Amino acid sequence: MDDVQRVNDFKARIGAGEKIESTDWMPKEYRDLLIKQIHMHGISEIMGAYPEKEWVGKAPTIRRKLALNAKVQDEIGHGQMLLRLAEDLSRPYGRGREALMDDVLEGRVKFHNVFHLEAPTWADAGVIGFMVDGGAIITQAMLLDSSYAPYARMLKRIVAEESFHMQHGESVVLALAEGSEAQRAMLQGAITRWWPAMMYFFGPRMMGPSSQKMMDYKIRTMTNEQLRQKFINRYVPRIQALGMAIPDPALYQDAATRTWHYTDPDWEWFTAVVHHNSGPMSQARLSLRREAHRGQQWVREAAIEAGRVLQERGA
Amino acid sequence: METVTPAHREALADILLPIADDAWIAGQRGSEWLGMAPDLEEDLALSSISQDALGHAQLLYDVLAELGNREADEQVYARPASGWRHCRLVQTPRQDWADFVARRYCYETFDDLRLHALAGAGHAPLQSALAKILQEKLYHVRHFDTWLQTLAWGGTQSRARLQEAMAGVFSELGDLFSWGQGASALAMWNLTALSSLRPLWESRVRARLEQLGLEWPRVAAKKSDGRLGEHGPEFSDLLAEMTSVRAMEPAGEW
Ligand SMILES: [Fe+2]
Ligand SMILES: [Fe+2]
Known about the structure:
heterodimer, A: mainly alpha, Ferritin, two-stranded antiparallel ribbon, B: mainly alpha, 10 helices, 0% strand, binds fe (ii) ion
């Protein structure tokens, strides 16, 4: 079977709704799209630990501190699982964990726009769980149908945990909404900050060529705009129920088509932030990652050396 | 000894508070490593250990509340710096991994001995808290002992970093063994064994360091006593940060 034939057979399998396993043959294009998607997803989970990690030390009750610590741990765990999947797919390229982690430090893999931004108050920590994890659930629920079966299986567990995160965030946000004037003002400030970022979160109205190809291969099954509409539809009533305002005077739902109209986020600005790591917190968060990865390379090397020594001694 | 007098209750609170505070501050400082551990696997393991430590503190604060102290959240968020009884060892902010391993190995080993010695106290709520704590403590001791071994056998540079870190940590050990105001309370609860844990700790740690070919550094005399509430400006800063959000509405719901 020549390659063109093989690729066509592969596409036919996907067209018929079949799922692909890691041991199956796959076209290079499919593999590369998967690596791109899963690598970025994994790195975003890890970079997502930083904005919330800052608030673990300051959490206002014992219960909140434990919950936030556990949430950040879950995100690192998601990153670890996803990177394992990306490592597995990258085997033909001989690229393992170290290389995939180096990529973010050297700007070869991007991470979600939301994790480039400031989280200046405790309300931001709550709103991240409430809105960002809530947004991630919408994206990831779509990926549960992904044609790549190992990704879809992994997402099943991840989405279950994201639901806990959303509930944690919602609980934090609810306490603030029912709190004092100062607490409510802090919450409104955070919602106002995160709304435009969430409008960007799902990507441009017109999808780029690789997102389009991911649709063709059924790695993903919904358009950016479909996902964003789902988010708006879910969050408008939720935010209103909190008695909070949505910072978009142009927001309305077309009564006939049920489509939401909204003010576009500053596409250029956010895109530059993601592509050049030029957001307000991009470099600070990257330098934390660098400190962990590069700064502690000696520890990982020591662990390898100790493993060798102990094996020699038969210990 | 279930029919405890108010004096007994107060004495037990004096004994438990340093143990609870050590666990809380260890969990607080341990959480500073979130996203910063040498690899993702260690990040996950360490986060569990920090959550455990905070959970142990909470269990003990609950026992303390039952003994007449304020409820757990109030003990954490509404106590002045001078009311805290933790030692210097757990208070020092995050430095490098060698320091953290040396520090936590010393603390976990001591806390394990201390908690086992507490098993002699006839107080049911404490014993049920201890049953849970000791189970997890065993895992924490092993975790840092394994890291101690890893860094000791991890090559010349790693061994040197560990040795240097150990010397630094030993210079902060002074008040680990102190009981502050709790010293006289120990006798009331037949817990005098707790006042002589230092030689036990030293022999256990000395044997392990010898086994790993590490030098025994000099233990510095204590400069201040955390068990008496002497923590310096470093802790005032930590406490201010830790309570900063709640300070906005100290009596509010969060
Ligand atoms: Fe996640
Ligand atoms: Fe999450």
